[in-house]
Amino acid sequence: MNYRKRIADLVWKMEVFFLAAAGVLLICGFRIYRVMSGSMAPAIGTGSAVWVSDAKFEEIQEGDVITYTVGDGRTSVTHRVIGKNETDHTFFTKGDANGQADAKPVPYCNVDGVVRFWIPGAGYLLEILKSGAGKLLLAGMLFWMVLMHKAPAFCGKAPDKEEIA
Questions:
Q1: Which CATH number fits domain 3-148: 1.10.1370.40, 2.10.109.10, 1.10.3470.10, 3.10.20.600?
Q2: Are 48 and 35 in contact, with CB atoms under 8 Å apart?
Q3: 93, 107, 124, 133: which has the fewest Cβ within 10 Å?
């Protein structure tokens, strides 16, 4: 087996694995957010992608990192819970790198979920893929991968040197 075929097979398997893993996470209710500021550094750096899942009010504890919506509902913030008010179902939050707590408590109804894990730098890739050019690039890469993986079947297999002798 030649090296190009081995590399194409490896890349194909990696692509299938990552697409399957992403599909499972989405099916299981995870949502992906980009961290656009350094307020959670050094724990979660600027440009990280965080995977968030739902949690009941009672399950969210001091020290958990949550993602919540602020303002007009189009902006999300990822900060650490430093306290909670059981009476009015609100959380007190603070970015790890910030000197003081956030000015307003966060109502539970604004909480998108608890951060379960993150990948540093992956948020930049998400930003690129959200653009029109990024979607076109992704589609082109997927097409190229399928083509490279299936091309030998379409073109016929070239005989190995041993088969010629």
A1: 2.10.109.10
A2: yes
A3: 133
Q: 112 or 8, which is more confident?
A: 112
Q: Tens of pLDDT along 64-85?
A: 999 999 988 889 999 999 999 9
Whether residue 51 contacts residue 117, with contact meaning beta carbons closer than 8 Å, is answered with yes
* Strand residues in the chain grouped as ranges (E): 31-34, 49-53, 65-70, 75-85, 90-94, 106-107, 111-119
In the chain, what is the straight-line distance between the N-terminal and C-terminal CA atoms, in Å? 17
pLDDT above 90: residue 122: no
